[in-house]
Amino acid sequence: MGFVLDVRESNLEDVVDVNNDIPEFKSDGDVIDTDYFRKRIGDKAHAILVAYVGTIPVGYMVSYEDENNSLYCWMAGVRPDFRKGGVLTELMKKQFQWARVYEYDKITIKTRNERREMLSYLMKNNFMITSVEERENVLDNRILLESYL
Ligand SMILES: CC(C)(COP(=O)(O)OP(=O)(O)OC[C@H]1O[C@@H](n2cnc3c(N)ncnc32)[C@H](O)[C@@H]1OP(=O)(O)O)[C@@H](O)C(=O)NCCC(=O)NCCS
Prior knowledge:
The protein is α+β, with helices and mostly antiparallel strands. It has helices at 12-19, 34-41, 87-101, 116-124; strands spanning 6-9, 46-53, 56-66, 70-78, 106-112, 128-133, 142-148. It is globular and about 40 Å long.
C-alpha cells in the first residue's frame, strides 16, 4: 500500500465528501447529501466508517442493521485516485470487527452486475450469492450476497 490509512467511525459529512467524488454514483440522478443517508438509516443501529489518508477522507462504508440479525452493507466507495491500494479491504475489515462486537450473525450486501471491482472483491473474499433481482438491462441486475461472521 502506498499510503498510510486510518479507518474509523466518523460522520456523514465526510461520507458525502467522498461520495461526491465517485463517478459511478453520479448517473442515478439522486441528490446524495447527508439527509439522503440519514433518511435511510432512520433509527436503525448503524456503522459509518471512513478511511483517511492524513486528514483526507478517501473511502467510506455505511451499514445498518437489517432483518435476521444481519448487518447490511448499504453503500461504499473509494475516491478514484486512491483505488487499488487496499482501502476497501481495510474498510471491510473494520466493518467485520464492528459487526462481531455487536454480535451480528452475518454481513449482507447488494450490488449490481456492472460493479465488477466490488464483485471481484466479494468473490475473492468468500461472500456467497443468495439471489439475483433481475432488471431490464442485465448490467443493472442486483446481486445479493452474504458472509457469516
Ligand atoms: C469497489 C471499490 C470500493 C474498491 O475499492 P479499492 O479500495 O480500490 O479496493 P481494494 O484496493 O481494497 O481491493 C480489494 C480487492 O477488490 C478487487 N478489486 C478492486 N479493484 C479492482 C479492479 N479494478 N479490478 C479487479 N478487481 C478489483 C480485487 O479483488 C482486490 O484485491 P487485490 O488487490 O488483492 O486484487 C472501488 O473500486 C469503488 O469505489 N468503485 C465504485 C463504487 C462501487 O462500485 N462501490 C460498491 C458498490 S456496492
